[in-house]
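input
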Amino acid sequence: MFAQVGAPDHEINRSLAGRSSRRSSTYLLQSRLVKHYLASLTIAVLSTSCRQPEPRATSARSPEVRVAAPSNDRPIRDSRAAARPPVARIDPPQPDSDVVVSTVGPNPTSAGRVTIVALHGLGDRPENFALWLRASPVSARVVAIRAPERYGDGSAWWQPRGEDAYVASTMDRAARHVREKLARATAGQSSCGQPMLVGFSQGAMVAFSIAGRREIPWRIIVPIAGRLVAGALDVAPFVRSDVEVRAMHGEADTRVPIGGGRLAVQQLRTRGLDATIRTFAGVDHSIPDEVRVAVFDELLRAARSMGCAAPQ
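output
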């Protein structure tokens, strides 16, 4: 607003002073607004620059974790070997049962099936141990028996206390357990020839001790990586029979050294049994392919001798 012409000097001065004051207030307000805006902008910029970068999205696929092998006697350690498809159809196992029964071989539904009894090692389970037998060239009913005592997430034929006298005292119970479970699993079932027995580690030690008993007329017994503890053959009357004992043992076995397997075979031969041992260089306490092939050869030979498999 302009001062009126002809107005007194003091009125003009008052008017000019008022205008100057209003202009100063306006400039001050605008300056403050600009400063506030610049301050806000600076804070926003600093906040953005100090923010942690977002992590880059990674694949949803979990990395492969390798778990150390448990300290038990589970012979299948090669996952590729365990995943091999069966030669023939296998009946669904019954994991909660004391006995897991499956049919294997090229003609699993034929009337010429033999019975193969499978005894697992320390801490294993019958449904796991029976897996490698699915490649059997012999048409058979596999009866995998669960050991009577709990051990970890599996079972044991006895608790590993390391005392031979204690182990020998459990052999009679183990033999009775096998006899009862086999009788229950095969009740009302037909079978070709005499049953055959395969055992690994603790199961092989049970198999060795059963060789001198006649409750079950075994055709062949194949202990894998086992031994005989002192007194194991004396817990029951030893009976000489025509059973064949064909032991298998890895020369690199440190859990059950091969000397124990050799001594067991020697003890059985001393008592008049047909017992031999086949050793495998570089094989540890497991059942790799070369051992499986040797076991299957013995089972097939025994089945043919009973007329339960086609001749070669």
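quick obs: The beta strands are 99-104, 114-119, 140-145, 149-151, 154-156, 196-200, 220-224, 244-250, 274-280.
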